Amino acid sequence: MSTVAGRMQIDGMVTGNTHEERVLSYLKIYGSITSLEAIRDLGNTRLSASIFNLRQKGYDIAGVPTTVATRWHKKDGTRKMTSVTKYVLTELPL
């Protein structure tokens, strides 16, 4: 077993020869992906391009605005927040 994005997985579950195939596999397993997860877990630095291509192939992938904590802290000690897009596979093509 290994950890992907803080999630336990069985080695080799995310499969595919191309970025698109790996992103699609990741979406099917975990349900969503952010750009940080794509970089860290899949080595994909161009997630939006992969999502664009998958949409062109008929996959219904929603972009959901999400607020996440950064590594930086405010003067009061609380974490700074930023907005990112979380991509969610909503429907497979017919």
Characterization of the model:
With 94 residues, this protein is α+β, with helices and mostly antiparallel strands. The longest helix is centred in the first third of the chain and has 12 residues. The protein is elongated.
Question: Strand fraction band?
Answer: 35-45%
Cα end-to-end separation: 33 Å
Rg over alpha carbons: 15 Å
CATH topology name: Arc Repressor Mutant, subunit A
Name the CATH class. Mainly Alpha
Largest sheet, in brief, is: 3 strands, antiparallel
The overall number of domains is: 1
Gross geometry:
elongated
Q: Please report the total strand number as a whole number.
A: 5
Uncertain residue ranges? none
- H and E order: EEHEHHEE
User: Helical amount among residues, as a percent range?
Assistant: 25-40%
Sheet with most strands: strand arrangement: 3-5-4
Averaged pLDDT, please?
87
CATH architecture: Orthogonal Bundle
Number of helices: 3
Structural class: alpha+beta
Notable features of this structure?
single chain; Arc Repressor Mutant, subunit A; 37% strand; alpha+beta; 3 helices; 3-stranded antiparallel β-sheet
Give the structure's gist in a few sentences.
With 94 residues, the chain is of the alpha+beta class. Helices cover 32% and strands 37% of the residues. The chain has one domain: Arc Repressor Mutant, subunit A, CATH 1.10.10.
